[in-house]
Amino acid sequence: MAHKSDLIASDIDGYLKAQEEKSLLRFITCGSVDDGKSTLIGRLLFESKLIFEDQLSALEADSKKMGTQGDKLDFALLVDGLASEREQGITIDVAYRFFSTEKRKFIVADTPGHEQYTRNMATGASTAELAIILIDARKGILTQTRRHSFIVSRLGIENVVLAVNKMDLVGYSQQVFSDIEIAYRAFAKELGGIEHITAIPMSALEGDNIVERSKAMDWYNGPVLLEHLETVGVRDAAQTKAFRMPVQWVNRPNLDFRGFSGFISSGAVKPGDLIKVLPSAKESTVARIVTMDGDLDEAVAGQSVTLTLNDEIDISRGDMICAAGDPSEVANQFETTILWMADEPMYPGRPYLLKNGTSTVNATITRPKYRIDVNTLSHEAAHELALNEVGVCNISLDRSIPFDPYPDNRETGSFILIDKMTNSTVGMGMIHFALRRSSNVHWQALDVERSTRASIKGQKPAVLWFTGLSGSGKSTIANIVDRKLIAMNAHTMLLDGDNVRHGLNKDLGFTDADRVENIRRVAEVSKLMTDAGLITLVSFISPFRAERRLARDLVGEGEFIEVFVDTPLEVAEARDRKGLYKKARAGQIKNFTGIDSPYEAPENAEIHIVTTEVSPEAAADEIVRQLVSRGIVFS
Amino acid sequence: MQTLTHLQRLEAESIHIMREVAAEADNPVMLYSVGKDSAVMLHLALKAFYPSKPPFPLMHVDTTWKFREMIAFRDRVAEKYGLDLIVHINEDGVRQGVGPFSHGSALHTDIMKTQSLKQALDKYKFDVAFGGARRDEEKSRAKERVFSFRTADHRWDPKNQRPELWRIFNTRKAKGESIRVFPLSNWTELDIWQYIHLEKINIVPLYFAAKRPVVERDGTLIMVDDERMPLNPGEVPEERMVRFRTLGCYPLTGGIESEAATLTEIIQEMLLTTTSERQGRVIDHDQSASMEKKKQEGYF
Known about the structure:
The complex is a heterodimer of chains A (635) and B (300). Chain A has 635 residues and is of the alpha/beta class. Chain A has four domains: 5-234, Rossmann fold, CATH 3.40.50.300; 238-323, Elongation Factor Tu (Ef-tu), domain 3; 330-440, Translation factors (Elongation Factor Tu (Ef-tu), domain 3); 450-629, 3-Layer(aba) Sandwich (Rossmann fold), CATH 3.40.50.300. Helix content of chain A is 28%, strand content 27%. In chain A, strands 7-15-11-12-14-9-8 form a seven-stranded antiparallel β-sheet, with no helix packed on it. A six-stranded mixed β-sheet of chain A has the order 2-3-1-4-5-6, sandwiched between helices. In chain A, a hairpin with a 6-residue loop joins strand 22 (414-418) and strand 23. Chain A starts with a helix and ends in a 6-residue tail after the last helix. With 300 residues, chain B is of the alpha/beta class. Chain B has two domains: 6-193 and 289-297, Rossmann fold; 203-285, no CATH class. Chain B is 35% helix and 14% strand. Chain B contains eight helices and ten strands. In chain B, helix 1 packs across helix 2 (36-49). The longest helix of chain B has 25 residues, at 100-124. Chain B is globular and about 60 Å long. Chains A and B meet through helix 1, helix 2, helix 4, strand 2 and strand 3 of A and helix 1, helix 2, helix 6 and helix 7 of B.
């Protein structure tokens, strides 16, 4: 008996007290249409006395009308919900069921076994702490058993119950059972990731080894299913890991209170703990753990709380508060496993939105390194991923996010992919590791702020990005601007494209990939110089809009001032001070901008200089005037 | 190490869901039906945003046939917590004199509840609406997502639901579309009662047994809550000890005879009883698979 009627009748307060101490287990059942999955769940509901009399009479009536068990109750009818499914006799989506016993409350994700519904199984598995994999004793391990186990292991479910069902149909044979168990353990070992396997011989239809020990299988000494579900230890492992709380919402009821609300993904936190906020890497200590029921002395993984800190630091949604001594990594490129969930395939290179924790960012996915055949587990080459296909792909984001590898943390290592046009959830993924080695180098917060560095120089930092054809006059004008700024006591630095290629970028050539890397490095260097408080002048042909966009994104809007030095090709070519146009026309230089490689003129440059209308000196005066009006330097 | 209880885990999950909506929705609202599930949902919202107030209004879709005690309780709660309460009534329906006695339960529910809700969501341009529905209430709800999308004309398509993975909710939608969010999806009726008990949450007195004037019709005890209730020839209201397991329009809500006058007695009675919760609701029995059909049409 799952609920003790005597206690309820005699001591309701004692009963309620005991009920309040119950733990929770979320599990998933995986099996095909005729493994008896619905029958198993129906029986668990029935045995735990959660079927009421009116439901029971409806079940009796339904069993007679459309049941498949003759005069017996057809438990499967209890759990097949939608009208369309009832007609087809199959479960078509994920359904959640609830039952409880004296010790635990259970949430069951009931998912279908059809191949086309792999995505539904993965959905159910994503929140499960344990998986019941059903096997028909007559059939043994099937392709779908392998598929289910593969998904279970990749989604990080460490506890599996191998439910060898329909033992009544194989004469309750111990040999049949142990052959299946041995074969499965060998397969699971090969698969990896499944830590604990408990194999139970049962008959859901007859009720053998579900709640009551089977008399027909006295050779079996292990736990019966319900007993195992009530006692298996799960979840608490998250508490032993390092503290992580993605910030969901900033709580500001008034000027005196600033709290950070979130769900604790892992670990525990106490007032006084030293924490680090990612990606800013600012550190502070926890002041209070605020709840409506009063402040807490400690909060652990699985709780939703609001923290206040002892220092005023800028924190917003998408940031992650971590244990300072063991923070998450921060990166923008990962190797991942992706399960595709949409009818339209995943196309490499197309931008999707990626949501991980509370961060939503733009993501681009590379061509799959390989696709994994979920039935044979073999790796195969693929150009794209279709519905229900699983592949290993690299992902690149437009900004860095805090994360942990999925095997270490299911909460901070998981993500969904969203189609920007339809807004539907098209994929799910698990992060393996960051691609750049630098991701393991944590950002060190500096004691002196960049604004301080700039203010003692009496200026605002900025990058003046001069773009234009070779011979347009970029370097000439940039040099005059530089002299004028120095004369105004401003602190500047000039980076010339040609000069940088002699040193920092001397390993780079002129292929597309090298050009992008060339720009990235120059942009990173100029960003460092703005951090130092400098006004940085960059003179660079930078012919492609996408490259200039990259530089702008790296430096940051507001500090990036694009100066378009607009000189018609014939004018620049006529000047040809370095003799490069002549060589290009002669075919001695390939990919020369303006000749056999395009120049994409800026559409919205902050400053536009038409060199055929003004002298270099006048152009420089105009640029300085604009810097003054933008408050970057003071005249 | 501390093991969280099932109620602690359910509470944390519901709070997480509410905060996710507060952070990502443009104009959210909490549908407040005054029942016990709404009481729990509101309590969780107060916790989720403490010390701030919930950053959204409450909205009650009033059919004008609710129990008077529900209305009084609703107004007390809104005042006590200083919440912004919107009461919406389908005035077209009122003008046409729609009611459960004159038009039958199906038409009344459709016009005064389903249509009225759509009207209100359109009027205030709410893009996300919290509802207190639970998956254990009824079979078609067992498959509904926590974030359940509605087309611009408020329809639910059970075959085209977004997968919901881990704790990551995709809240993006096109203009005109809306989302119904069910923070209590994973709670059962027993969880709700236990939580009310543990957290000492106030609920409408109608849940507790008291002497009330009722008439018995087709085996259902209907309370004579006001003078609009037409009595059949020879029908005389009698005072009986009754209470209600669910609350809605008084003519459509059957009471049960009970002596359970305290919270623990209610829970005790519920655990020892053998009929499921929704049986007292007349609308579920209209036709087979009726809830699924109503939901597709926009009923919450």
